[in-house]
Amino acid sequence: MKLNFIQKTGLVAVLLLSLGSCNDVLEEYNPSGLTAESVYSSPEGFETLVNAAYSYQRWWYGKEEGYNISETGTDIWTSAAGDVWRDLTQYLNLQGNNAALTNEWRELYAAVNLCNGGINRIGEAGLSAALRPVREGELRFLRAFYYWHIAETWGGVHFTTQETNGIVSTANKTPVETIYAQIFEDLKFATANLPATQPQYGKVTKGAAQAFLARMYLTRGMNKEALEMAEAVLKGNYGYKLEANYADLWKMSNLKTKEAIYVVDYSTNLALNDLANSTFNPYGHSRGSNSGHLLFLMKYDDRPGMARDLVNGRPFNRYMPTRFLLDLYSDEDARYEGSFQQAWYANAATRPVGMSLGDTAVYSTRKEIPDAFEATRKYLTVDRSKIYNANGTVKDNLRYPTLSKFMDPTRANFNEAQSARDVFVIRLAEVYMIAAEAQMKLGNLPAAAEYINVVRTRAAKSGKAASMQITPAQVTLDFILDERAREFAGEQMRWFDLKRTGKLLERIRAYAPDNAVNLQEYHVVRPIPQTQLDAVTNKAEFKQNPGYQ
């Protein structure tokens, strides 16, 4: 019997999911002929192992599974008509048979296993004295990164730092504190040994390791350490810089922005990404590449005057914003228009009488539009009262303001599901917000407000910077969570933010009525996949998380 988390041994991962260097990005290829001996005993083989360890990030970042686990089921997103995992979004009979959780469990543990093998065998690889600590630092960062996703998603579950080969029939339940002790040990090694820059885009650097360590310190309530590490990034002369215009962050021509501290990269050559292929990549993802551009789009292509096109995207209609999220943005805040699409312009051959190509065909707004004004328009208006009921529950789960951050008009055609968009895992704005939250918790509200105002100044519309500033008296944990929603909506961290602050249940109940109906106290951790529970022989010790069947 083989456990799900070791279905891919380290060698299998290298053989089938390896990454190599091409044009300074991490790209997949099939290094045929590799053996365990060549992988672990030669510098060239070991490079494939390290690069392969990065590839598992693609199973979470830019994938529907990752979005459903980390963004939906919170105060800011709820199910649209096409949501396939409402059990995650609305906690509707969430159990261990959820496919998204099952997939991520398998891939995260495979990643940990590969990292364990590399870390423990790095002495056999023949690396130079200068290169060895760098490669070990990368593997330690990645192991910490993967274990963070595991511990926060499932709590105190299986933990090991040893490579697993062959058949294992038992699993352990390790306290979250023990897992975090290893996370901190690994990240401290990474910050001490990684260089400020890497020749390959997408590889972890010293600044990225420090930023992630700051996030981990904040997660565990180590506020002094979180502040120190965040300030080490802010003062580290790494060249990081906030984009002057928030909307510019999301241009496909700006993927190498200096605001991005750590990214999961996707190649412009889609064949080099992670789409499953029976010959070269049988363990790949069924959709492949970044699919964030599909998931947040409203159904526009069946409206009068509209046809599906490349600019407006392929609408999978999975997730929609809660009314609460839309209301968080003031009229002075450029992040609303920089994050959401409200207007769709006529592009169909057949259009309503009087509507020309390029005219507004659909307008979806968070505001209420008077009926008398709507009656004078040729286009379809979807306003506040058409989208939401008076109590904030969803009335229309097909039409709503669309998150546009992840749109990709560079795809080959409008039906292409794969995008080469890189995923920004850590941005400089987050480091400012980490420093602000740490300062608040340490009692220094003026310093907290100063850090927040850096982010809000960038977010202000032209001439509105002064009105976007906040005072120290306005700094509360709820304000910080509101600000993080405005800044990071959709960026695969909201569930973790709410859990970290102890606000998950409270804010879902207060602001996401559709998600709150079935919400229970035990939903602060996810159910262990049933396939894992079925595989173990020590069922009395390795049980399902409390509350789940």
Summing up helix and strand content along with how strands pair, one would put the structural category as: mainly alpha
The tally of beta strands, per DSSP, is 11
Individual helix count: 23
Percent of sequence in beta strands = 5-15%
Task: Please state how the strands of the largest beta sheet are arranged side by side.
Answer: 7-8-9
Percent helix range: 40-55%
Radius of gyration: 23 Å
- pLDDT averaged over residues: 93
Largest sheet: 3 strands, mixed
Distance between the termini: 23 Å
Explain this structure to me?
With 549 residues, this protein is mainly alpha-helical. Helices cover 40% and strands 7% of the residues. The chain contains 23 helices and eleven strands. It has helices spanning 10-17, 36-41, 43-55, 64-70, 86-89, 99-121, 132-154, 176-193, 206-219, 223-234, 292-295, 323-327, 335-339, 371-374, 384-387, 428-441, 445-459, 465-468, 477-488, 494-500, 504-511, 513-516, 530-535, and strands at 19-22, 25-28, 77-79, 260-264, 319-321, 340-341, 343-345, 360-364, 380-382, 402-403, 423-427. The strands form five sheets. It has a three-stranded mixed β-sheet with strand order 7-8-9. A two-stranded antiparallel ribbon has the order 1-2. A two-stranded antiparallel sheet has the order 3-5. β1 and β2 form a beta hairpin. The longest helix has 23 residues, at 99-121. The chain is globular. The chain starts with 9 loop residues before the first helix and ends in a 14-residue tail after the last helix. Mean pLDDT is 93; it is low at 1-32. One of its GO terms (cellular component) is cell outer membrane.
